[in-house]
Write a structure and sequence with these properties.
This protein is 59% helix and 8% strand. The strands form five sheets. Strands 2, 3, 4, 5 and 6 form a five-stranded antiparallel sheet that branches. A hairpin with a 2-residue loop joins strand 4 and strand 5 (117-124). The protein is α+β, with helices and mostly antiparallel strands. The protein is elongated.
Length: 836
């Protein structure tokens, strides 16, 4: 066996290095902060949740294909209230004159005019992210400024920018709440600047290093800084408390060193449960979980790094101020409340068991939402208000694209007619039924005479054009019989325009202008509906974006109709996106629930070395999760599915710490106190930590929920705040009784992990707390539980002697072994019953 010579432990040596090199760490952190403030602008923020769909989903494949094959012009639904029909017609003309506006559709139908409200369907010259579309939208706003107008569009709708502004307000309010909580729960006022500097540094470093990921979601970008504060402030508080304890016995430098050496293992163990919850998120099939998980884990790691390497130097720097600003303890003693709580140990657990069974049932009936149409937030943005106003007046739009192979206009025409026959389909548009001139459709096949009549051309000119087209397409058989030669209108239009541009066809000015106008419309239609290899059919569904009826039609009649004509096709739209999300949610829900529990149990097994205790703690926190997600069902309020996945992971990974704090203290205290006394004392000792951490996390969540105008982010905040409050309630009022009733299970399922034996040789005094085996030559003053074999010269103050004749106790020089305090206590006399 290896020898372990006297000297400071590795943790002490590491802590000494950190404290003594604090100025170097200050310099490094200063440079890192400056860098992070600059680099935080390098991170791209993704506002599109559909981009995180798994690659194998139909929606993701369809979106990728459509981006490659088609152009999707940006649109806007512009509603103007309190105007006459004549005013609306005039406004429509003015809108079409705006630079960057391709068209502004308006008619007398109820799709565009109801009561005194008019709705203009505007199409822009560019796509959603193009500057031409954004500039045109601003011109429209300026044009309609005198009117009561609402514009529903994705153009210029930058969620990340809006959330960033909201998060600034949330951070200010959260900062005020956190400082207020720390003022009440801290022991000295100057601890607070240390805590805030430590956290602020960690938050800046985390945000400034997100660019390493290339791109993060708008959800990760917005909520991480607040969740980081609420989740990681515990680590700094633990080190502060350790320092306060050691400062009573040592100078500041030595106190920080010893405190840090003790806090590193404790804080690292505490962070494992939180990290494990975030790791579970990363196993989601829906990519947003991986994105949020990795950003939050990085945030926790930066928080640990700041606490371990920056905060020790700050404690030394602020030590004089910390010493001078001690104040009275504002946290009440709740040991009396603890004694009252344990009186209900046979009442509360059965009630809790019934509550979690009901919670499990109700949470399984939670009405989940997978899109934006059914979820709301307490605060609504200007864009959200406009969307609701337009949808409430003229109905919501639900557009679905059917992507099919290109080339067969007859099959396409037949499919469009079939789809339009369903009452669930308001309209179906494709190249095959898109209107052209004189009631012709773009895919209609025309003879030279029909083409000449439509464009007012000479038949001879039309024959020449058809001949040139036939030769180009190598359709020589038709060229010999032009009267029966039919060419799709769209193909002939594009060919004639191409030949006219090259100068091969001469047309008079009026005809050339008509041809150019027609070409522009046909070209736009082709860009949107026809690609190199695929054609896109656009359906306007008269169904909600999501729901059982919508999904049933999507996967039933609609899909069956398309299969009659095409084997290879894709359905793409918000409805298919919602359906794909609902499918992945079923898998992700089970995956996250299992992984969260497994990861946390593994950490707790090695922490408590008991099988029963982790199960009891998991039962309490999982119960709080089920009860938390019963509320949406009881309130008849749809819950965004992502809220459940994120919050359940955070509850299991972070709120479990509250249960660990009470359980750890209880397991230590019951070695010296009766179980009931131990649990009431443990409850009182753990209360400051739980109320500090819990109130911060709950406040952070509720602030996000009440202030954010983005429904997805607000939903996460509300659920997190409510879940944290429930966890605190159950941990403080239910867990104590469960620990008392389950004490037998805890003790019977304990196991030991034996550390390696170490032979220690020393010629000086040392303090021991543990097991010893070997030879000791010297004076021993200790409590010993075990067997001593050999000659003993000692006084036994407690216990009894074995009757084994091999154990001989001699009374030689007994006074030399009596401690001085024992001599004073007994006045130099010894109890004969204990003398040998």
């Amino acid at each position: 066996m290896a020898k372990n010579h006297d000297g400071p432990s590795f943790m002490v040596r590491l802590a000494t290095l950190i404290v003594d090199k604090r100025n170097l760490f200050f310099l490094i952190y200063g440079a890192a902060i400056i860098f992070s403030l600059v680099s935080s602008r390098w991170t791209a923020v993704n506002n599109d949740l559909t981009s995180y769909l798994p690659k194998e989903t139909e929606t993701r494949q369809g979106l990728d294909l459509m981006e490659k094959e088609f152009t999707t012009f940006a649109t806007a639904r512009v509603m103007v209230n309190n105007i006459t029909y004549q005013q609306a017609e005039d406004i429509a003309k003015e809108l079409e004159e705006v630079s960057g506006v391709k068209e502004a559709l308006f008619d007398e139908t109820q799709d565009h005019y109801i009561g005194a409200a008019a709705m203009f369907s505007v199409t822009f010259d560019g796509e959603v992210e193009d500057d031409v579309s954004k500039e045109a939208l601003e011109d429209i706003r300026s044009l309609l400024k005198p009117y009561d107008v609402y514009i529903s569009t994705e153009v210029g709708n930058d969620r990340s920018a809006a959330l960033a502004e909201e998060m600034k307000m949330i951070m200010v309010i959260a900062g005020v709440i956190i400082v207020s909580v720390l003022l009440l729960t801290s022991k000295t006022y100057m601890e607070i600047p240390v805590l805030l500097l430590t956290f602020g540094t960690a938050a800046i470093l985390n945000k400034g290093t997100n660019f390493f990921f290339g791109e993060i979601s708008f959800i990760s970008d917005s909520v991480t800084v607040v969740l980081q504060l609420a989740l990681a402030i515990d680590y700094a508080i633990i080190l502060c408390h350790r320092y306060s304890e050691e400062r009573q016995k040592m100078e500041p430098r030595e106190a920080v060193i010893i405190a840090l050496s003790k806090a590193i293992p404790e804080i690292s163990a505490s962070s494992l449960t939180t990290i494990s919850g975030m790791m579970a998120l990363m196993f989601m099939k829906f990519g947003i979980g991986y994105d949020l998980g990795r950003v939050l884990i990085k945030a926790i790691l930066f928080s640990l790094l700041s606490v371990f390497t920056l905060m020790p130097g700050l404690l030394v720097l602020f030590s004089k101020g910390i010493d001078r600003t001690h104040h009275q303890n504002f946290v009440p003693n709740i040991e009396g409340i603890g004694r009252i709580i344990i009186k209900f140990q046979y009442v509360v657990p059965p009630i809790f068991l019934v509550a979690i069974l009901i919670g499990f049932k109700l949470s399984s009936m939670c009405p989940y939402a997978y899109g934006y149409t059914n979820i709301t937030s307490i605060q609504e943005s200007e864009q959200t208000i406009a969307d609701h106003k337009v949808n409430d007046t003229f109905g919501a739009q639900n557009t679905l694209a059917v992507v099919i192979p290109k080339g067969d206009y007859d099959k396409e025409r037949a499919l469009l007619a079939k789809l339009e026959s369903h009452p669930e389909v308001k309209s179906a548009l494709g190249i095959a039924n898109a209107e052209a001139e004189d009631d012709y459709k773009l895919a209609d096949e025309l003879t030279p005479r029909q083409f000449a009549e439509m464009l007012d051309l000479d038949v001879e000119v039309a024959n020449l054009l058809y001949t040139a087209y036939g030769l180009k397409e190598q359709e020589y058989g038709y060229v010999a019989n032009l009267d029966k030669y039919k060419v799709p209108l769209i193909d002939m239009f594009l060919f004639v325009h191409e030949e006219a541009d090259k100068g091969y066809v001469e047309l008079d000015e009026d005809l050339k202008q008509d041809l150019d106008d027609a070409y522009e419309k046909i070209s736009d239609a082709q860009k949107q509906l026809q690609g190199e290899e695929y054609t896109r059919l656009v359906l306007d569904l008269g169904l909600p974006e999501e729901g059982e009826k919508t999904f049933a039609f999507l996967n039933g009649e609609l899909r069956d109709d398309v299969k009659q004509y095409y084997d290879d096709f894709l359905l793409v739209g918000n409805t298919t996106s919602d359906y794909d999300l609902s499918s992945s949610f079923s898998r992700d829900n089970v995956m996250i629930s299992i992984l969260s529990i497994v990861f946390v149990i593994l950490v707790l097994l090695f922490t408590f070395q008991s099988v029963g205790l982790p199960i009891l703690l998991i039962l309490v926190i999982q119960g709080s999760v089920w009860i938390n997600f019963s509320f949406p069902y009881l309130m008849k309020s749809p819950l965004f599915f992502l809220s459940y996945l994120v919050v359940s992971s955070i509850q299991m990974g972070a709120n479990i710490d509250y249960a660990i704090v009470i359980s750890s203290r209880y397991m230590d205290l019951k070695k010296e106190l009766p179980p009931k006394k131990a649990i009431s004392v443990a409850l009182n000792q753990a209360f400051p930590t739980i109320i500090t951490s819990g109130s911060m996390l709950a406040a952070a969540g509720l602030l996000i929920g009440f202030i954010s105008s983005d429904p997805t982010v607000a939903s996460i905040g509300i659920c997190l705040g409510r879940g944290t409050i429930l966890s605190i309630f159950l941990v403080m009022l239910v867990l104590p009784e469960i620990l008392l009733l389950g004490d037998t299970i805890i003790e019977r399922t304990k196991f030991d992990i034996k550390p390696p034996e170490i032979t220690h040789e020393a010629n000086s005094a040392m303090r021991l707390n543990g097991h010893i085996r070997g030879y000791v030559n010297g004076v021993m003053d200790a409590k010993v539980q075990g067997i001593i074999r050999g000659d003993i010269h000692a006084i036994l103050n407690t216990g009894t002697l074995p009757e084994d004749g091999q154990h001989l106790l001699k009374r030689e020089n007994l006074e030399d072994f009596i401690p001085e305090e024992e001599k004073e206590k007994k006045g130099g006399e010894t109890d004969e019953s204990n003398k040998v």
